[in-house]
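ok here's V-type proton ATPase subunit a:
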Amino acid sequence: MGSLLRSEDMTKLQIVFDEVAAHDTVDELGKTGMFEFEDQNEDISDFQRHFAPNIRRCEELQRRLRFLAEEMKKLDLEPDDDYTQVPEEGLRFDNLESLLEKLEANIQSLNINCSQLEDNHNTLVEQKVVLEKGAEFFKNAPVVTKSSYGATDAIVSLSSTMEALGAQKTLSFRQSGKSGEELLLNQQSVSVGTPDLLNTTMGLLTKSKVQAFDRLLFRASRGNAFSRYAEVDEPILDAETGEKVEKVAFIIFHFGEEMASKVSKICKAFMASVLPFPEKAEDQRKMYARVITEIADLKGVIDSTKRQRRELLADLIPKFASWNDFVMREKAIYHSLNMVKTEQKVFVATGWVPTIAIDSVRTAAEKGKKRSHSQAQTMIETQHVPASTEPPTYFRTNRFTSVFQGIVESYAVAQYKEMNPAPFAVVSFPFLFAVMFGDVGHGIIMAAVAFLIIRAESSMKGKKLDEMTATLYDGRYIIFMMGCFSIFTGLIYNEFFAVPLDFFGGRWKYTDASAMACGIDNCDDPAAVHPPLAPYPFGFDPIWKGSTTGLLFFNSYKMKLSIILGVTQMVLGICLSYRNARFFKEPIDVWYVFVPQMVFMNSIFGYLCLLIILKWCINYDAPECRADPNCVPPDIKAILIGMFMSPGSLEPTLQMYPGQALVQTLLLAAALISVPIMFLAKPLLLKQRHENRQKHTEHSALLGDEEDDEAGHGHGEFVFGDVMVQNMIHTIEFVLGCVSNTASYLRLWALSLAHAELSNVFLEKLIYMGAGSGSAILMVVCYSMWIAMTIGVLMLMESLSAFLHALRLHWVEFQNKFYSLHGPGAKFKPFSYEELRKGEE
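and the structure:
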């Protein structure tokens, strides 16, 4: 029977169904979500499998759906995520394929038409601007008439025109008080008065390109082309980028065919729009009136086209999610059918199912047969599993335990029936986090945020959330637990935003007789500074917060507490390795791995924790202890060092109990003896067992006994050297890890002190300083900065740091003592629509 401590019992099934029932049977299995298909066509490439064309059709439909979704987003139409809003009963794949093909063609046609219409509209707008700017310029431009005295006079006239044009140095064309639009509408425009030899080129250019354009034009014409520019009042759509940009109207005066060709090439290089400008005033007015009319007509057609496209896409919103879900399910069905073995229109599927879900799978297969109206019977048989085959690992989780299971499986997936660390992490993970993050105020904020998310869970489920909100939603329960445990440890530390809470009244008081405080019920001799007879009932006494020795006191306590918590968790991990060895019936691992590991760990580090607790329990202020000069608080580090450097001898000031030197010598001897046992015993015993098995196999072969060879199946080839090296690595890793892992738990002490000191700094430098300034403005500024620092630094950065350190302590220091020691297992991955939908999100 499976539980959260060990994975569920798994059974391998074989399902036989005919071709008619194939699709509906797999569909019902996907709804059940409890059957993992085993690929029986691994030797066939994906492109050569039977249902590869169907998968390609599904991928094409998904491409079309993505295209429609992108078109909706362009129009600020958000596709509905609720795939159950419009039930698609009776929806057929072929019908949807035909419908989406027509929709895609219609949208693409509307897009092309709209794009062409907008290009034409943009060209007409540019033409309108050119006509207006040209009318402004030529209203006051010098007019040169043709000479009746021949070419010489014409050249003189041309030269005078160029000089007159060159005299205009302003950027703007406009010199009169009227705009080009007014001149054209009021019939006040004039004809272009330039000689036949002088040509003009007009158009629009992006404003950022004007300087480079003018420079190149000057060099190419050697100063024989004159250009003038005028800013356009409103941005104009750029045909290349599709965005509105600021443009400038330009007019270029030049002469000769060769110069005209150069100007044309330069305009093309800078992607300038060259537009016609009639010479006669009457033609200008007629063109302007025609352009105005065509712009209005095109605007109406464009609006109608966009409205038609929007209405077409808006009608798809309630259906879109169900279509997307339908195509996703169809593709998954054909992927699963590609893993099924086919023999003469008979499909044979094999796979894994939790034993508790066999009836659900049978019901799903029967329902698929009835849906398809198949006449053939669907058969389900239990398959025999060889000893060498390891079933997948499956743990039943709920909304609360799934996040802890995810944290564990981020390290590695448990082997089948291996002990699961997740139930222990439910308590240990938030507790270790809270040891580093202990503060009542910070814990209340964290728990309150998580509680609000839990309250809004039903409304947030299934919706698309931003990355930050999605992270908080997924970890809402573990955040709530971390907040609650932080409140608990904050009460022990007696910290509320770095302010001590005096619930029961302080048990110490200061007197004039000494700089040190004495107990309120033990202060007959104030100079003796005796501790209180009745200490503070729960947590730290608030007087420690303001004392000069408070930091030393907290430092000592948190360091020792970190070691005790670390050794306790590591011993728990070793005990879980015993549970694994016992469950898998491996007595060698029990007696020659678990026992020496427990002896080594507890002989040194367990003894260290015992000394810490014993030191806390001894009353060094008792009269009998004060009378003994050797009864002083010992240095535990010196005791542990002397245990290794001078075994059997102990200084009187370091003795904590009778017979301590002998006990430490025995513990050291036990720790040293356990190392070669861990190193040598298991490989030698495995070698002996392998030799005995070989002798038994040879004896059975000589006698001709027909025995099931699966008793020894799965052990593989035994190589003593490889086993010896592997065991040596594990032994060295464990011995050195006991030291490094214990030291690693000191991060609990370091981060806890850092968190408390940061809180204290923010309190003193912002709250107290602002309150003591007497300035209302400075108080508001300091309080605002304190809130920002508390949320930004302590609630976000510090909490993330504590979370990552707690994660490392579980992965490296705790789980490596027992978890996935023989290689990672295979996670149970059933064919489930629910899991596919989560993946799509």
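+1. The chain has 25 helices and 13 strands.
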